């Protein structure tokens, strides 16, 4: 089990992580979400053991992880970190990259392992290709296979699917996360993509300016977002005043609601003017204006710009 205890960290004078604590069981998946600069990559690098900690402690089970001042080679053996740059050797092939740290003692076992991992990341056809001839997304997949080759107990992924097109991303994500579960490998993913959290994480940490805003089951965070910042990490979101959506209310209490929680209704209490309709596949996202405030809601069809419509809020949906 990984334990991070009260970690506070600064590169120079400004603290970029403040009093971070977390626990992660074997096989558990944690996603870290937060705006750019909130400290996600720094936290992964600290857990990997790249930076010396003045304040706070790391443990793997009972064992204290001491960091770069105590390890000859920075980075713990049993942890693999796939950074935002992929750290591949450009002039050897994909399969040689993946197998770089595997023993040559059992060559057949080694090639079987490499083939398995290339299949997992969907790159079997590129085994003999050099990384320089691959796209950014393909290189990202080689880096993931290379990290897994060494059978880590904890995998740290920094924006792992950022360069991979949607078509490949969905299948890769499914395969990878079920592989990690089957092997009981813990994983921490720093991500911008809400799907990484909602569908695959057991726990989600929301970071803002180096602080944990919340750490919980992603379904609970989505359903009861603490504030607009948390909700907005899961997609488009509205912040309305209670008096805007509840008849007879005069309260200025802020209410966070998602576009799917506002429906067009003749008797709707909230009146907005439509600005734009964006096709989303299964529905349209409608951008509208309430006074000068933008309000997003979902609808089955596009709506003519300039039209005034009434909306009803259903916060339970
Ligand atoms: P994220 O991954 O969430 O975008 P980072 O962990 O990369 O955030 O950065 C957190 C903060 O630390 C930012 O303000 C960033 O500018 C700063 N920072 C990151 N790396 C360094 C570094 N090597 N030296 C100094 N400041 C850094
Ligand atoms: Mg980052």
From TrEMBL:
Gene3D superfamilies, per database record: P-loop containing nucleotide triphosphate hydrolases
Residue stretches making up the ABC transporter domain: 2-234
Regions annotated as coiled coil: none
One Pfam short name: ABC_tran
One of the record's GO molecular function terms: ATP hydrolysis activity
Superkingdom of the organism of origin: Bacteria
InterPro entries assigned: AAA+_ATPase, ABC_SmlMolc_Importer, ABC_transporter-like_ATP-bd, ABC_transporter-like_CS, P-loop_NTPase
Key word Transmembrane present: no
UniProt KW keywords: ATP-binding, Nucleotide-binding, Transport
Listed PANTHER family: SPERMIDINE/PUTRESCINE IMPORT ATP-BINDING PROTEIN POTA (PTHR42781), SPERMIDINE_PUTRESCINE IMPORT ATP-BINDING PROTEIN POTA (PTHR42781:SF4)
Name used for this protein in its record: ABC transporter ATP-binding protein
